[in-house]
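User: Structure please.
Assistant: Input sequence and predicted structure:
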Amino acid sequence: MRIEIVVFDGFDELDALAPYEVLQNAAGGGADFRVRLVSWSGKKEIVAAHGMRITVETGTANEPRPDLVIVPGGGWNSRSPQGARAEVQSGVIPKRLAELHQAGTTIAAVCTGAMLLASAGLLRGRSATTHHGASEELRAAGAELISARVVDDDDLITAGGVTSGLDLALWLVERFAGPAVAHTVEREMEYERRGVVWRRLASGKIS
């Protein structure tokens, strides 16, 4: 399973790196995950919200389509000049998300990364959550706001504020690699999941 975590200038470090570590640990525990941090802007060096600089791969449309994309948030509530709002205005990430989703990629978001999904038109009429500071904007974008730590609406999965990236990633491990692998990763990282996972099954039923 090909997994891309898309980063951009101003992204919140924990939004991206917490899922990255969880998923890499799952891969080490036997899950068929190939995980990478990518930039879709063409920039190889990315400066995150708290000043961390990372060098990442530059993903292109010519590469094999990822099975899962995870989008972090960052800077939305503070209206920072770099971050999720700037990426909405740029339009590069929303456009690519829409294309990938149309082609069959599952899209997930942590925190205000959900606003990038909303900008792509993906959350209109769909169930979702985000950081509480952006919840009304998410609702205004047409999403059905759900009060849950993780909202799994089949091919669109969102999570609440910053630390919920851990819970999102562990849910992804459970969903795609099974509960035994997820439990092993939890024990290894000494993290106990918290909050509710709200899930709509492909049949339309809610679990």
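Helices lie at 13-28, 84-90, 92-103, 114-119, 135-140, 164-177, 179-189.
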